[in-house]
Structures are given as structure tokens and as C-alpha cells.
Amino acid sequence: MGKPSMSSEECLSWLDLSGSPSPQCSPMGGQSVWASQPPDFTEERGGGTVMVATNMDGRTLFDGAVPAGDEVVSGIVTELLVARAIGGLGEDVKSKLNKRILFTFFSSETSGSLGSTKFFTDTLTPFTCPLPTQTTSDNATKPLPYDPNFPTCLNPLYPSLRFTSLPNTVPTTISLSSLGSGGSTLYSLCYNGPDPSNQSQIQSILSSLSVPPGSATALPPSPLDTLISMRPTSATGCVITSHPSSPDPLVGTIYDTPSRISLQNLASAATKIARAVVADAVVGVDGMTVPSASSYATSNVPAVTADDSEISKLLACFGSQGSACEAVKDARAREDSRNALRTGYGIGYMRPMGEPPNYGGGVYTSGNEQPWIYLDGEMIAATGDGDKFESEGGFVTLQPSELSAALKGLLSYYLQDGGQGTSELCGTDGDCGGGGGG
């Protein structure tokens, strides 16, 4: 790390005696993962967006030992189960949704909320790329584009501009926090705008679904907290937790192991959150009010039960198996094949989850999720010459972590049809779920 008196910019832009870059520190960061329902971005949803959000990383005093059972694993498993429930809805229900349902897994949240801050910065402010590629599926050249349906921005470097198709309206946000280790009752800790006497639509819906308000006087650190800091007058949402008055005391320690997680808690959380987002998305449709929308969601979103084999499979994958999990192996193979088709090279190194997984934050480098351009036999961080990139076969790539690759694949798989129609994960960003890193 750099000297205490250094700013981040000074630390990262350090030059040696010859004037060459010689950084004294490395930035934290990684690729967040998101996907939406419906996946077709041309489909309008006039009611806005409701977002389910959780963290991809945790923390302890020991960087190499971060089990993050209730801090990370319970949220990951629950959100994937919610995506599975939403993806498995009948077309009659999906056609009524007046909001886009967005699923987000944020990287580096324990390092200054980096993932959620970048995501909201990119999506809430109209983004114009000064140098996009012309290579898309409508203008197919070799090598293949990073994303077959959206261009790349070459400077600043964004492998895919898919995120620009998301509405730049402030989403109603449901953040997941410590769901697995508390009592069997879930609680909501809500922010309803600048006036604390107001009750938001999502809080009313959660109350009607037996998720009462908790007694904590402050929200725990969460993506919702990030959104409030950026849009205090328009943000609304709730943190869902099994700890109503104070944080789980074992979170942030090596004792926060996945063995503490209750399958019943996760099943209950997935059921209520899936019903809450559907209810929020149908209020106003066919004259539905909060009570009738909640009843509609309860009738049309099947309950997730603790004996559902998918819960046990996901908990084993993200709680104990890590790199040995079949979903992780499938994701590695898919990314390797996809990168080889696009660039002629396999993906190579992917930051491993470990066995058991370690959820400590990662350093953002070309070997760990930082995108880069290959041009003229060199790896570069950006280019100002789009014509040269197009004419000389430049390509953009990145090396995802095993965790982000697995989450992207599972989101796509579940959002297609609840994972019922196919035994294989989707092959590209454009298949199935419409998601990506960023």
C-alpha cells in the first residue's frame, strides 16, 4: 500500500526514476453481475424498476479466511431462488408486470460500496460513449464482439454497453442482509424518502406479506444505503433481514460460517421477496391496489419450501464446494469456450472461489476482472483510435472470477424459465436472462 499521506490517485499514478508508471498500490474492485426480467430490453415497462440486491464479498480480520455465511452466502442463495421463482412464472403473470425486475450482485461492497456506487453512477445518469465500436451482430466481423447485441465503448473501456438500455429511473430497491441465522421471522428496515412518516408502497406490500418493520434506527450498510446517499429525495426501498434491531454479531468474523444458515429461513425469504417484487410490479394493473396485488402475488408465485433440492444444492455450492461446484465448473467451461470463439484464446486464469469459498474482496487487475484491449500485440486499457481497432482485428476481453461467472450463468439459467426447460447454462450474455458484468 502507499504512504498514509498519499491520495488514491497519487498512489496509482506513481512514476519511477525513468518516468515509467510504477503504481505503489492496487485498486480494489471487480465485476458486478446483473440480469433482468424481462430479458428483452425493447420491451417497455412503464412502471419503472424494482431491484433485488445483495453483496458478493465480505470481510474478516483475515483476508484469506472470509466464509461470510450470513453476510454473503445467504443473500446469494436467496436471490438466486427469487430469480428462479420469477423466471418460472407463467406468461400470463409475466405479461402483467408493469415494472422491470432487476437482479444485482455487487462486487467490492465492503470496500467503500464500490460495486453499487459504480452501477448507480452508470445507470442513473445518461451515459454517452464517445468512442463505441461498430461491431455488433448486425455488422459481424472477426473477431466476434464482446456482446453480440450491444457495442463496446473503447474509451472509457466498457466491454458492453448493455447497461445503457436499463431505465435511468431510480429503482425501488430490496437489499438482502443476514437472512439465514436469525429467528424465523423476517423484518424490513425501510427508507421511504426524506419524510420518515411516509410509508412506501414496497413497505406496505412487505407488511401485507408478513414482513413487519424492524426496530433498528439505522439501515445496515447495503446497496440501498448507497442509493440513498446518491438520490436521497427519490430513493425508496427496504433491507430484508432476520435481525430486526441490531446487526448479526458474527458477521465480519471467521465464525460467520454457512453452517449457521437455516434452510427454512432461506425458503421463507425467497418466497416473500419473490411475491413482494411481483406485487410491486402489478400495483395499478387492472386496478390492483396494494392489498389486491399482494393477494395476486401470493396466489400466483408458488412457495419455496425447505425440502426443495435446489436450496440444498445452491447452499452446498456457495457455502462449501466453491471451485468444486458443478455450476462453477460449467461457468468456467462456458466462459472459456465463449472467449475462444470471440478472440481465438481460452479464458485462462479465473480468480478461484476456493474450497471452501473465500469471499474476501479482490484486487482489480488485468488478471482479475479488469477489461482490456488487445491491439498490435499489446494489452492496453483503452484506445482513442476506433478505426484502427475495427480494421486491425482488435478485441476486448476480461478474465472473470469464478464467482461472477457462476452467478451470471445461474441468473441466465433461472430467468429463462425457472431452470425447467434446459439442462445447460446459457452460452452468451445475450442468451436467456439479459445480464452482464459491470
From TrEMBL:
<protein>
    <submittedName>
        <fullName>Uncharacterized protein</fullName>
    </submittedName>
</protein>
<dbReference type="GO" id="GO:0016485">
    <property type="term" value="P:protein processing"/>
</dbReference>
<dbReference type="Pfam" id="PF05450">
    <property type="entry name" value="Nicastrin"/>
</dbReference>
<dbReference type="GO" id="GO:0005886">
    <property type="term" value="C:plasma membrane"/>
</dbReference>
<dbReference type="InterPro" id="IPR008710">
    <property type="entry name" value="Nicastrin"/>
</dbReference>
